[in-house]
Design brief:
globular; Alpha-D-Glucose-1,6-Bisphosphate, Chain A, domain 4; 4 helices
Length: 152
């Protein structure tokens, strides 16, 4: 296998696409209340919520129960596509991956809204595993946020 790769997930959204996008753009610090099994804390380190270039610390639990932390830069925001891209700049991910970027965006497919997570990465070496746990974390987070909005 190569050192560079891309993983993609697609999950149907039952709730409001605008509320979902708003959570990841402007209110990620609310995620520990919405998805406490996955997200432990999201803190603004530098800049302003919802702006490109802001730096955010994420503390989370992977599906295997392992707790980790990462500092990310908000790399891109596109309101029309309801897209936010986070690029890892410090933490456990940067120990294993030379590059790690996660993008969440919403696509319309007929009457349905689909949340797409794309993880682009470059491993430090061949011994580093593919980041399947991180993709599963994103899918679980999507389901928790969607359920939160549907139940309100």
């Amino acid at each position: 296998m190569g050192l560079k790769g891309k993983l993609v997930s697609q999950t149907e959204l039952k709730g409001c696409k605008d509320l979902f996008h708003e959570m990841f753009r402007h209110k990620p610090h609310h995620l520990p209340n919405v998805a406490p099994n996955s997200i432990k804390a999201v803190d603004l380190h530098e800049g302003d919520w919802g702006t490109v270039g802001s730096v955010v610390n994420w503390n989370y639990t992977l599906v295997d129960g392992k707790e980790e932390a990462v500092k990310v830069v908000v790399d891109d925001i596109n309101e029309e596509k309801r897209l936010v891209t986070f690029k890892a700049c410090e933490g456990h991910l940067t120990e294993q991956y030379k590059a790690f970027k996660a993008t969440v965006h919403i696509e319309n497919e007929g009457e349905n809204n689909l949340v797409l997570w794309t993880i682009e990465y470059e491993k430090q070496n061949e011994d580093v595993p593919e980041p399947f746990y991180y993709l599963q974390l994103a899918v679980n987070l999507t389901k928790d946020v969607d359920a939160h909005h549907v139940n309100q």
